[in-house]
Each structure stands twice: as C-alpha cells, then as structure tokens.
Description:
Elements: H1 2-8, E1 11-15, H2 34-37, E2 42-43, H3 56-72, E3 76-80, H4 84-91, H5 103-116, H6 118-128, H7 130-136, H8 140-153, H9 157-160, E4 172-175, H10 179-195, H11 198-208, H12 221-228, H13 234-257, E5 262-265, H14 269-285
Parallel strand pairs: 1-2, 1-3, 4-5
Helix pairs in contact: 1-14, 3-4, 5-6, 5-8, 6-7, 6-8, 7-8, 10-13, 11-12, 12-13
Amino acid sequence: MAVAAAHRLNGELVSVDSRQVYRHCDIGTNKPTAAELDGLRCRLIDVVDPGTPFTVADYRRLAMEAVGDLDRHGRLPVLQGGTGLYLRALLDGWNLAGAPPNPELRAALEQRLELEGPAALDTELRRIDPASAELAQGNPRRIIRALEIHAVTGRAPSVARQADPPAWSTVVIGLDVPLPELDRRIEARVTHMIEAGWPEEVARIRREFPGADLRRLGHGYPELAAHLDGRLSLDEARQSTVRQVRQYARRQLTWFRADRRVQWLPADPDQIVERMRVGMMTAEAS
C-alpha cells in the first residue's frame, strides 16, 4: 500500500519500524525487497548493526533529517511501518527528556529485569509516573528507558518528555483488516520467512555479532536460536513466533485505535491514495 501511494504521489518511503533499522536482519524483520520497492528508496532501514544501541531519540533525529531532505527535493514523505512509539515521537515532536542513555544505569535496570521480572519494574514506574507506564504498555525496554529518564532527570518521564510538534500536515492511515484474516496472514508470513532462510539468517547473525541481544531484533530470533541450539523443534519455534506476533499485532491495534488521527481504511490502494490526495489538498487550501 505504501509503495503504491508513493509511486502515485511522487513520494519516497520512510520506515517507521524499530527492527528494520538493523542491518543483516532482512528476512526476520520482513524488510521490503528491491522487487517490492519497484525502484523506490526506503529510508531508515539498515541503519546500525545488530548489538548497536538505537533509541527512539536516534530514530526521531534521523527521521526529521529524512523528511526535511525529501521536502527540499519536492518529494512526499510516505511513512510506513507499525512502531507506534516511533511514529508518535516523530509526529508529536518528543524531545525525549534530553537524557542520553546511561549504560551503567541501564545495565543495572536490565539486571533487575532479569532477577525481578518486568512486573516489578512496571509497578515501580506506575508509582513514579502512571502516564508513562500506560505508554510503555508493559514493554520492558520502554519501562527501563522511562526509569532511566526519571533517575537521570529526577522528573516524571511524561513531564520531562516535553513536546514540540513539527508544523506538518499529516494524513495517518491504518489498514482495517479483520482479525481472522490478520491471523491467517501472520501465520503464512512466518512460515514463508522460515522457508526463505530465516534460520540461516539467525545463525549468521549469531556468528558475526555474538554480543547482539536477539530479543531486540524482533519476534522469532530468540526462538530460532533455541531451535539451532536443539532446545526447540523448528515447528515449535514457528508456532511460538506466530503466537507472539499475533499478540503483538493486537497490542499495535490497541495503540493505534487510541490515536484519533488514524483513519481506518480497507487495504485498497485506490481508496488510500484518494484519501491522501484529499488530505494534501485540504492542507494546501488552509
């Protein structure tokens, strides 16, 4: 859908995916292929190597640069992807508290995560800042970052994260796909990715980047590593990945349905492009 829209509206793609920023993780993050892009460039994929820290602040900075560059060249930025935190940080202009990552503090929080579990850290964040806890949605990485901001700044993360939204006119579109169809597509996609060489991709990443945390690369990477180690059969790894991706898809729907900017449309390129054209014309007339 994004490729069709970019082609018809003189646009270029900007990825909004927290996993596709990692190089070498092509199959498991479902990066668009050259054939799928059909001559288009997709920015903000293949940004860092596995194991290299990459934060939402890094994403926002690079995305602002990409959108500015496209605007200077008269191209329409078509943002595509499902990482809601990245999209909200970009569109709402988060400054992310001005607290750079603290490796020592983060290591201590990650050790607590291992020893105490995510529920304990979530409880602590809810006591400090309920709004940030709701925003984190139980995601351990987001909880740790919020606790890190509080420790460094002494302020509630939701207060420290002041916003300065860019002066953009935007049209935000969500694809309205029935859950049974979405579940079917997820299972088919995971099966196809495994058949396309995903286990070999995981083996190569482990060999070339032994320090990389596979959990940060996306669903399925730890499960396939367990399969390669003989701890799971390939079908068990597949089933576990399908289950996790389905659960994640439901969390994404909850996140985006709470955003009133999102217009829900069927997966019809003509209808989507027309809605985007109307939004552009309205912005130009205002």
